[in-house]
Specification:
By secondary structure, this protein is mostly helical. It is built from nine helices and no strands. It has a domain at 105-194. α2 runs antiparallel to α3 and α5 crosses α6.
């Protein structure tokens, strides 16, 4: 194995990047063009250039807010939750985590799986007095058969446990696809009904 191949095999999986934002970028570009054309028609070329500069500043501010940054401090999150506020960039961060988790198993295991496991553990502890980590057999039984309703084709509920099993080692191979959206929806539905 060459040093380059070894180095590439340990890199983070690439997300779709900007491809997932094509509709939003298209609307933004059309808005900028329409505004600039209207300003040009009304006030001339100097005003149109000024309008483009204003749009460039607005775009830079928006891009800075959308860039992947460190999570806000826990105290700030608690204050926002108490006030009923949420971070706009938090929405995009969560959207990116979901996109990465469906694209790559490594991303799912690193980012989304711990969150889903914590939600499952909280539901089991609060409603059924079962500890996910010390009694995984009871947790599995409740997750798979507690609701009595099949959400996956062919009654393949046993597959849901694979995605949440705390004893399953994290995937390290980069090329394996992440969680299918239908399976993720079934897990979320199970967590809500549990």
């Amino acid at each position: 194995m060459t040093p380059r191949a070894s180095r590439d095999s340990h890199q983070e999986p690439r997300a779709d990047g900007w491809r997932g934002c094509v509709p939003e970028l298209t609307v933004g570009a059309l808005l900028i063009l329409a505004t600039s054309a209207a300003v040009y028609a009304y006030a001339g070329p100097h005003a149109a250039v000024f309008a483009l500069i204003i749009w460039a500043v607005v775009a830079l501010v928006l891009l800075r807010g959308l860039a992947h940054t460190a999570a806000p401090p826990q105290q700030q999150l608690e204050t926002w939750s108490a006030a009923g506020r949420a971070s706009f960039t938090g929405f995009w961060r969560k959207r990116g985590i979901l996109a990465s988790a469906t694209a790559s198993m490594v991303s799912y295991d690193a980012e989304l799986r711990p969150t889903l496991q914590h939600l499952l553990a909280a539901r089991l502890a609060e409603r059924h007095d079962v500890n996910l980590y010390t009694d995984p057999a009871a947790a599995r039984q409740l997750l798979l058969h507690g609701t009595g309703r099949s959400l996956l084709r062919g009654g393949r509920e046993d597959q849901l446990w694979y995605w949440l099993d705390p004893s399953r080692p994290a995937e390290t191979r980069q090329r394996i696809r992440g969680i299918p959206p239908r399976t993720l929806a079934a897990i979320i539905d199970r967590l809500e009904r549990l």
